[in-house]
Amino acid sequence: MHPCKYIIVSEEEEGYPLDAFCIPSHYEAYLERVLVPCGLIMDRIERLSRDIAQDYVNQPFTALCVLKGGYKFCADLLDKIKQNVRNSENPTGVISVDFIRLKSYVNEESTGKLKVMGIDNLSTLAGRNLLIVEDIIDTGFTMSNLLVLLKEFKPKSVRVVSLFVKRSPNSNGYKPDYIGFEVPNKFIVGYALDYNEYFRDLNHVCIINEKGKVKYGKK
Fold first, then answer.
1. How far apart are CA 82 and CA 88, in angstroms?
2. pLDDT the model gives residue 6
């Protein structure tokens, strides 16, 4: 497998001014800066797809997309992986897709138990090569718990790709097999990352400002 190389966005990185990009007018007042432009995200996904395709040469695998935030990353990543497979001279395997939703919080408090929704029966994952596709890993506890749970169902292999990994002071130290970007401990939105279901329709990954947190916070 390829070594885990990724782009590190430093604490000092200020990002880019909003007026240098096309930002939906309904969000302009609620964002600080563009942290990662969409074009850079797509270029990074292209490289991730190449690394993943090479690691699964002649092996079928199931992409397990973690909803909701992972849907756009998963779709773009699989498009690029399939492109790599089509153009590969190596033997290739079938790619299948399934979807899950994870819940470990009630009213912002962790229950300590992970609930997996969306898939009918986790036992169907037995014997499969699994690629878990996640949008962002914050503390790492949810993903760590998911991996423990999946192990009970005896998949052939499990790898994790996350577009973003946050440098959280509460992190348990978990790092996925493939990482797009390591980012500061700031609340980011866009590219399907949301704040209370808003900002998923924003292409670039941006830092939400305090005004935005108030505007779109739960009442």
1. 10
2. 94
Question: Domain 40-184, what fold?
Answer: Rossmann fold (3.40.50)
Q: Check residue 22 and give left, alpha or beta (phi > 0: left; psi -120 to 50: alpha).
A: beta
Q: Is 98 a catalytic residue?
A: no
Q: Which pLDDT score, from 0 to 100, does residue 112 have?
A: 52
CA–CA separation, 115 vs 124, rounded Å? 17
Q: Which of 43, 51, 98, 138 is catalytic?
A: 138
Q: What is the pLDDT of residue 121?
A: 77
Pick from 44, 37, 47: nearest CA to 13: 37
Whether residue 5 contacts residue 177, with contact meaning beta carbons closer than 8 Å, is answered with no
82 three-class SS: helix
- Here the tokens at position 160 are 């994790």
**Residue 189 per-residue DSSP state:** E
Domain positions in the chain: 40-184
Element (H, E) at 41: helix 38-55
DSSP bridge pairs for 65 = 99, 133
Which of 102 and 169 is assigned the larger pLDDT?
Answer: 169
- Cα Rg of the chain, angstroms: 18
Q: What is the pTM of this model?
A: 0.91
Q: What is the pLDDT of residues 110-131, one digit of tens each?
A: 445 677 776 767 888 999 999 9
Question: Is the distance from CB of 202 to CB of 189 less than 8 angstroms?
Answer: yes
Under the phi-then-psi rule, with left for phi > 0, alpha for psi from -120 to 50, and beta for the rest, what region is 169? alpha
